[in-house]
Amino acid sequence: MVDKIALLLVIIGAVNWGLVGIFQFDLVSYLFGGQGALISRIVYTLVGAAGLWSISLLFRDREPVTEM
Asked: How many CB atoms sit inside 10 A of residue 3's CB?
């Protein structure tokens, strides 16, 4: 469950950075009252933590899926 939440937050961060890069529009700050607003800072922190968590996905051993 944590992996799915982290992935969702990473996707939100990626979309936001894409908007910043292409249109110079920060959706998170627009929705939550600016970059310095507490809720914006919480969202940015959660996205950053999710990105760090997602690094662990690269190094996990996965069981191969076998079809029957």
From this structure: 13
E strand intervals along the chain:
none
Six-digit token pair at 31? 């929705």
SS3 38: helix
The enclosing H or E element of 14 equals helix 2-23
- For residue 7 the two structure tokens come to 């992935």
- Over the stretch 5-51, which tens digit does the pLDDT of each residue have? 999 999 999 999 999 999 999 999 999 999 999 999 999 999 999 99
Whether the Cβ atoms of residue 9 and residue 1 lie closer than 8 Å to each other: no
